[in-house]
Amino acid sequence: MLTPDDVRSVVFARAWRRDHGYDEAEVDAFLKRVVATLRGKPLVTARDVLTVRFSPRKRGRRAYKKKQVDAFLDQVALTLMKREVRASQQQERAEARRAEPPRRGVPEAAGREADPPQRRPERVPRAEFDTAGPQQRALDKAEVDAFVDRVAATLRGEDTLTAHDLLTARFNPPQPGHPGYQEAGVVAFLVMAAASIRHLAPRARAIPAQRMPIARAFRRGATGGRGLTAEAISSVVFNEPPEGTPGYDVDEVDDLLDRVAATLRGADGLTAAEVRAAEFPQVPVGGYDPVEVDALLDLVAEHLDTARTPDRA
Fold first, then answer.
1. Where are its TM segments located (predicted)?
2. Position 186 confidence tier, pLDDT thresholds 50, 70, 90
């Protein structure tokens, strides 16, 4: 995740005179609002970042290269999205606590049968995927949308998909001339949705609940399989742990995932052994769900065990 200093210190190359570029003053002004937001003054949302438009170079003024600005704003949007998800979860928990009736200090009768475990309430993950660019792997939109509908139904208890179903799902590329979803975003969504489905309480259904660790369910056999990419790692958003359960320190986890993404791009040398040995301080409230983090790191370690070349997509 980006910090205010990261945004303040970013440097973009200037566009050549014949290139339009983005007006330098407009970009700088917008980034100042981003810095203020990261410091706690909510001036900009992730949606604002994704939809912002800058004027082309004005006569007599300087401009930044569009590709560099767009790439950096993608990182800004992801950072703000993670902050917004975390803030929304904290607000929901606070509202739930306020809605609870006051508890009386009445001891339970000896021998009373414990209440059955309650299903952990799961929010249906939000699935909004970017359209793939010319050099990016694309997936058929209709196929992905139909499968995501089943994922949402499963999290509501109305369908019977398992974690294995999500992690082994395959989609065709779009028809020639038709846009498709960016594969990295779809993979990131399915990995995190699979983690949520693994924690649903068992219930009567045609297919038994999947209890296999994600790293084993996400097999990459000789016939090939989907590998993790730096882009997919950067797109992951973790849930907070259940109330009363400590979570992993957010900054520590993000730092490790930054190294994972850099390694997949070929800019770092993180090993599978280092990933497996990683330990994170725990925080009593909030943080990242340890089960979700560990599940993703299982995937990362397996990928690093088998990957031969860095991902430079």
1. none
2. confident
Alpha helix positions (H), 15-65: 24-38, 46-51
Amino acid at 122: E
Sequence-separated (6 or more) residues with CB below 8 Å from residue 31 = 7, 8, 10
Confidence of residue 152 (pLDDT cuts 50, 70, 90): confident
- Asked if residue 202 has pLDDT above 50, the reply is no
CA 271 to centroid of chain Cα atoms: 22
Determine which of 6-10, 34-38, 106-110, 148-152 has the lowest per-residue pLDDT on average: 106-110
Please state whether beta strands 181-182 and 138-139 pair in parallel, antiparallel, or not at all (unpaired): antiparallel
Question: How far from 270 is each of 36, 160, 196, 258, 293, CA to CA, in Å?
Answer: 33, 37, 27, 10, 17
pTM: 0.44
From the number of C-beta atoms within 10 Å of its C-beta (0-12, 13-18, 19+), residue 223 rates as exposed
What CA–CA distance (Å, rounded) separates 249 from 120? 22
Residue with tokens 């001891």: 107
d(CA 86, CA 240): 7
CB 216 within 8 A of CB 295: no
The structural domains of the chain, with segments of one domain joined by +, span: 4-76, 122-226, 239-313
The pLDDT tens digits of the residues spanning 291-309 come to 888 888 888 888 888 765 4
Do residues 300 and 260 lie in contact, with contact meaning Cβ atoms separated by under 8 Å? yes
CB burial of residue 38 (10 Å; 0-12, 13-18, 19+): buried
Sign of CA dihedral 234, 240, 242, 244: positive
Phi-psi group of 252: left, alpha or beta (phi > 0 → left; psi -120 to 50 → alpha; rest → beta): alpha
